[in-house]
């Protein structure tokens, strides 16, 4: 960032995940070593017994039990999860009502929403196609298209908080939530917005997604041991566990936050974006893109590798992806990586696809706020090729004083994002 | 459900209230769906879909466009159910 651009702080967090229906419950469960992963529980028509993978990380709280029947009828499950997280984040930031003209808590022309996903609308698309096939065009919901569009979570979030500065949804698979946060920072720095709700969501637990990811060899096949299936950086890792959920940050111009005496979790001090240009699905084994994303985030925040104390890694538990990221971190931080504790929280949450970047940004903000690096629950035997200080099953205290953390995200397509958060 | 002409109005108001999230007490037979109750076009399609299923009344698009008020829809159902 340039010296003239406003600093960006995090004034609210919201999440609904396999560990809990809100950010606080998720954080507590994570520190307690709970697992959000279990057996697939679906209707018989899904013929789950024929799937090679039958373990998932379903949202702990079904969003349809929280929202109004109208919201549930008119939205895809991903949008529902996003609405729950956004409502929590907005309220957590101290806003008691949506932005509105004349008298609201904030001018709607200064509010933005950037909620990204990898596959939002997927299950609605499939369901509406089934209706078309079985009952004809007349049975298709008039909300079919609004439910299917991948910008729907962001658009509905914008409607919820009253965002008129801009509503966006950069789509970059599993890096989407983190890219949304970067985009939100850009909106504030450029002066387009004072407050932005930014994060990610996905709800893809469906036989098609399970079959598709399984055919890529991306999923863990530990059907008999779901709790221990997601094991980032461990020698026994064999793939990720498909999960669903949403996580959002409320980003705010630091001056604006000060002006209303808002509680501040941390500064969102920088971001770096890069692309592998290697393969549509496989990570570049050299991790060069991730290294460049981390280096760019450090430069953007005006800091150095020596300052990085904690990293929430993307680490999905795939054999290749974890190694590529571990190497990238080591190359980006050099010897300073010896003093950086790395957490891989997908060990507890599973992989929330587009939701991962959002939820892990929330967890990184909370780690700085509470001064605790969360555990990597299933780390028993660290892969010797991973030359990092990975936090094991027990949380680790972060030092007092200024603390800087990175949050990485990588997505199919070769998208690499690194966010840099700093204690205030 | 069996057709009961005496309760169509009451049942339709309840249905409309559920779909559009409008308190029942704000809905009268004279209420215009769009102009008075601000029911958007997608919600009207949904409302007529459920109406068709519930009372077995097929509402062609040209008829649906002409039905303006709650009372007009209720009369339509009574005549055709």
How many helices of chain A? The count is: 13
Greatest interface = A-B, 11 and 10 residues
**In angstroms, what is the radius of gyration of chain A?**
20 Å
Alpha-carbon distance between the termini of chain A? 17 Å
* Overall helicity of chain A: 25-40%
Main beta-sheet annotation of chain A = 11 strands, mixed
N-to-C SSE string of chain B, H for helix and E for strand: HHHH
What distance separates the N and C termini of chain B?
Answer: 11 Å
Q: Kindly name the structural category of chain B.
A: mainly alpha
How large is the share of residues in beta strands of chain A? 15-25%
What is the overall silhouette of chain B? Answer: globular
Strand content of chain B: under 5%
Mean pLDDT of chain A: 96
Give the structural class of chain A.
Answer: alpha/beta
Key descriptive features of the protein:
heterodimer; A: 424 residues; alpha/beta; two-stranded antiparallel sheet; 15 strands; globular; B: 81 residues; mainly alpha; 4 helices; 0% strand
């Amino acid at each position: 960032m340039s010296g003239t651009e406003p600093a960006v702080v995090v004034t609210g967090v919201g999440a609904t995940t396999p560990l809990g229906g809100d950010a606080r419950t998720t954080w507590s469960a994570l520190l307690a070593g709970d697992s959000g992963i279990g057996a697939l529980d679906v209707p018989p028509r899904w013929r789950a017994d024929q799937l090679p993978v039958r373990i998932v990380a379903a949202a702990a709280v079904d969003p349809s039990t929280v929202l109004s029947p109208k919201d549930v009828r008119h939205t895809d499950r991903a949008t529902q999860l996003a609405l729950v997280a956004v409502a929590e984040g907005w309220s957590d930031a101290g806003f008691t009502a949506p932005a509105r003209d004349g008298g609201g808590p904030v001018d709607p022309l200064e509010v933005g929403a950037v909620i990204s996903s990898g596959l939002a609308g997927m299950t609605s698309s499939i369901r509406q196609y089934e209706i078309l096939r079985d009952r004809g065009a007349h049975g298709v919901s008039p909300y079919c298209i609004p439910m299917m569009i991948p910008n729907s979570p962001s658009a509905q979030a914008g409607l919820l908080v009253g965002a008129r500065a801009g509503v966006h949804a950069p789509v970059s698979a599993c890096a989407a939530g983190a890219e949304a946060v970067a985009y939100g920072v850009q909106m504030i720095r450029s002066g387009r917005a004072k407050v932005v709700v930014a994060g990610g969501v996905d709800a893809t637990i469906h036989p098609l997604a399970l079959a598709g990811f399984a055919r890529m060899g991306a999923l863990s096949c530990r059907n008999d041991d779901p709790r221990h299936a997601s094991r980032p950086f461990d020698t026994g890792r064999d793939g990720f566990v498909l999960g669903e959920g949403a996580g959002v940050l409320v980003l705010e111009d630091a001056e604006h936050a000060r002006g209303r005496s808002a509680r501040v979790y941390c500064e969102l001090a920088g971001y770096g974006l890069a692309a592998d240009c290697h393969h549509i699905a496989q990570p570049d084994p050299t991790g060069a893109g991730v290294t460049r994303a981390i280096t760019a985030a450090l430069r953007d925040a005006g800091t150095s590798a020596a300052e990085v104390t904690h990293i929430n890694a993307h680490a999905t538990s795939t054999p290749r992806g974890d190694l590529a990221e571990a190497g990238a971190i080591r190359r980006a931080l050099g010897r300073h990586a010896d003093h950086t504790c790395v957490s891989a929280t997908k060990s507890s949450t599973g992989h929330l696809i587009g939701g991962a970047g959002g939820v892990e940004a929330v967890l990184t903000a909370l780690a700085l706020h509470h001064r605790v690096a969360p555990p990597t629950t299933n780390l028993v035997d660290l892969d010797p090729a991973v030359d990092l200080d990975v936090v094991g099953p027990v949380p680790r205290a972060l030092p007092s004083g200024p603390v800087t953390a990175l949050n990485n995200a990588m997505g199919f397509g070769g998208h690499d994002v690194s966010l840099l958060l700093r204690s205030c | 459900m069996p057709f009961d002409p005496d309760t169509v109005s009451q049942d339709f108001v309840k249905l409309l209230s559920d779909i559009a999230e409008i308190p029942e007490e704000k809905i009268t037979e004279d209420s215009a769906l769009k102009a008075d109750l601000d029911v958007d076009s997608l919600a009207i399609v949904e409302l007529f879909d459920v109406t068709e299923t519930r009372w077995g009344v097929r509402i062609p698009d040209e008829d649906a466009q002409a039905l303006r008020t709650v009372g007009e829809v209720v009369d339509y159902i009574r005549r055709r159910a």
